[in-house]
Amino acid sequence: MEPDELVRSQAQELRRGTVVVACLTLLKQPQYGYALLETLNDAGVPVDGNTLYPLLRRLEKQGLLASEWNTDESRPRKFYKTSPEGLTVCAGLVREWQALVTSMSELTKETP
Predict the structure, then answer these.
(1) How do strand 77-82 and strand 31-32 relate by DSSP bridges?
(2) What is the DSSP string of 5-16?
(3) Is 112 among the domain residues?
(4) What DSSP string runs through 73-106?
(5) If 0-12 CB within 10 Å is exposed, 13-18 middle and 19+ buried, where does residue 92 land?
(6) Residue 18 falls inside a structural domain
(7) How many domains does the chain contain in total?
(8) How do strand 77-82 and strand 65-70 relate by DSSP bridges?
(9) Is the separation of the CB atoms in 79 and 70 below 8 Å?
(10) What's 8's domain CATH number?
(11) pLDDT tens per residue, range 35-55
């Protein structure tokens, strides 16, 4: 396997858990799936629909997201929002993420 290919593969693994934190954070304001997908991609968190929609269903099943159908427009859309329990979990995950970033920054710091 080529080095670039290995980097892409490993980077995908690195991003996997960050998508959960990003979704819980972004869904503090209700959004439907496709809008969330675009927001994530625009923010530099690449994810495709085949990954995002099962994740949203899993987070909802775990009680971290709530959903509601909006049928006001011609095309019904399912809106997701972080639940109160999801907000608590999100805060804990953000703390963990920040601690990990600090640790990794220290570990990867170039020595003069």
Answers:
(1) antiparallel
(2) HHHHHHHHHHHH
(3) no
(4) SSS-EEEEEE-HHHHHHHHHHHHHHHHHHHHHHH
(5) exposed
(6) yes
(7) 1
(8) antiparallel
(9) yes
(10) 1.10.10.10
(11) 999 999 999 998 999 999 999
pTM: predicted TM-score of the whole model, two decimal places: 0.87
Contacts of 108 (CB under 8 A, 6+ apart): none
d(CA 14, CA 101): 12
Which residues constitute the domain of residue 102?
3-107
Q: Is the pLDDT of residue 2 over 70?
A: yes
Here the tokens at position 106 are 């220290």
Residue 9: predicted pLDDT: 85
Find out whether 19 and 40 touch, Cβ atoms under 8 Å: yes
Structure tokens at 36: 């969330």
Kindly give, in sequence order, each residue whose CB lies less than 8 Å from that of residue 24, ignoring residues fewer than 6 positions away: 59, 64, 65, 82, 86, 87, 89, 90, 93
As a whole number of angstroms, the distance between CA 67 and CA 70 comes to: 10
Q: How many residues does the chain have?
A: 112
